[in-house]
Amino acid sequence: MIKKVKFKTFKDLKAQVLRSGLTLPEFLKNYEAVNQGITVEEAVKRMKLRLDVMKRNIENGLKHPNVSRTGLTNGGAYKVKEFFKNRGTLLLSPEFTEIIMNTLAVSETNACMGRIVAAPTAGACGVLPGALLTIAKYKNTSDEKLVDALFVSGGIGEVIGNIASLSGAKHGCQAEIGSATSMAAGAIVSLFTTDIDAIESAAAFAMKNLLGLVCDPIGGYVEIPCIKRNVSGAFNAISSAEMALAGIRTVIPFDEVVLAMKRIGEKMSPTLKETAEGGLATTPTAKKLVKRIKSG
Amino acid sequence: MAIFDIIGPIMIGPSSSHTAGAARIGYFAREIFGNSFDFVEVDLFNSFADTGKGHGTDIAIIGGLLGLEPDDPRILHSFEIASEQGMKFHINWNKEENEDLPPNTAKITFYKNSIPFYIVGNSIGGGKVEIININGYEVKLSGKHFALIISALDALGIAAYITNIIAKSGINIASMDIKRDSSIGESLSVIKLDSEFPDEEIAEFYKNPNIKNVIKIRKLSE
């Protein structure tokens, strides 16, 4: 067993993993078990619970149109599913369409007060299952491997939390969808290789692509634009993972990308950080909608 | 931060602060006061009052007060369950901004035989909460520890008496905080413990006539 451990940066994490002789997921399972005071088996079991909730969200989230309390969410995932069922693939492949509808299914489940896994936040909870589980389906990935991948995504999230923050109120949407997409990108790469540099690059690409993204939810509700941003986050994760798997390596180390995210977040106006006082939230249409929701 | 806090918590959406945190405040309040009350009044402040309707803050808090954890899908039907169980409640949406309170704050007032007892909770993000006030005494409880909350008349030697009983039970004290309200001659001690204080030894405290009330708090689950 490893003694109580901590890592702050990805560089730090990588050094400890190399020293331990373990793979990244093995190291992170041990890490979490030791810090929680539980066995590795128990840690795996707890992560499996999370995986099961994610799977159920995709399944149940597509059964009928999801309508939220505010009415801002109104059956998007179901619409994509029905279109696909009746007319087939529109633009690319079935996989492409499935990533859209699976991600929507999870995020809409959240908006409609369903039971979800915050990853890293509730508002960004669709990215990881939408991207990772859809790929896993087409690659026949085992649950065991998926649990490992979730530990990898958790490790990446932890680095972001250590260096910057995972909160939209602190650093904008780049800290929520941005973090989720980094976590998903690294997790996807980990399904195909143990190369920690490839994992780092995927996470770095994904975050770089969303730097500067503001958090401007209409009325402060985690619906518009959050739900569809989950979809763009899922695709961003997949393209980042594919570039890293093809051998492209990030020029800027992941730690520095996260530091850049933090600096941008600090410079971001408070009106663009979850306060619903700027961006999309203050458009004339948004104001009208919010007035209607709050009076009804 | 734990990995399970990043891939987690498992919770009822849509908001970790406005829904999961709200449920946890209700659950925590019930853990402190118990479930024997005639009426409960919930005051929502600031962002809780502003966007709580759309986030289900109201039904989440009532769910918590019914003993439902933040990942319990029955939260969706908490108002119906409350009426089935005969739990009477009222929710006040305080629309006026209160600058003295944190952004996501709920005050929960229990009435038993018309005597009020209140708890103020603050949702600090990621589903985590803090109880910041119990009946006028400022505290800081997160549910991470087992704890005892003891109110007593402000008499000499009370702290020694309390710690002596805890020491005899063989339980380690993680921290102890004593607040005095000299205007009414009372003190409130919040003692965080490494493990659970045994129920059968609670009576020991009451042997001291200056001790008025002992509340035991369990560690809240993940």
Structure description:
The complex is a heterodimer of chains A (296) and B (222). Chain A is built from 13 helices and one strand. Chain A has helices spanning 10-20, 24-36, 40-60, 76-87, 94-111, 127-138, 143-163, 168-171, 177-192, 196-210, 226-245, 254-267, 284-295, and one strand spanning 115-117. In chain A, helix 5 (94-111) crosses helix 11, helix 7 (143-163) packs across helix 9 and helix 9 runs parallel beside helix 11 (226-245). The mean pLDDT of chain A is 95. Chain B has a six-stranded mixed β-sheet with strand order 3-2-4-5-6-7. In chain B, strands 9-10-8-11 form a four-stranded antiparallel β-sheet, with helices on both faces. Chain B is an alpha+beta fold. The longest helix of chain B has 18 residues, at 16-33. Chain B has helices at 3-6, 16-33, 47-55, 57-65, 78-85, 158-168, 203-206; strands at 10-12, 39-46, 89-93, 104-112, 115-125, 128-134, 137-141, 146-153, 173-181, 186-193, 211-217. Helices cover 28% and strands 36% of the residues of chain B. The interface between A and B is large, with 51 and 31 residues. Strand 1 (115-117) of chain A pairs antiparallel with strand 1 (10-12) of chain B, so a sheet runs across the interface.
Please write out the topology.
The complex is a heterodimer of chains A (296) and B (222).
Chain A (H helix, E strand, L loop, with lengths): L9 H11 L3 H13 L3 H21 L15 H12 L6 H18 L3 E3 L9 H12 L4 H21 L4 H4 L5 H16 L3 H15 L15 H20 L8 H14 L16 H12 L1
Helix pairs in contact in A: 2-3, 2-7, 3-5, 3-7, 4-5, 5-6, 5-11, 6-9, 6-11, 7-9, 9-10, 9-11, 10-11, 10-12
Chain B lengths: L2 H4 L3 E3 L3 H18 L5 E8 H9 L1 H9 L12 H8 L3 E5 L10 E9 L2 E11 L2 E7 L2 E5 L4 E8 L4 H11 L4 E9 L4 E8 L9 H4 L4 E7 L5
Parallel strand pairs in B: 2-3
Antiparallel strand pairs in B: 2-4, 4-5, 5-6, 6-7, 8-10, 8-11, 9-10
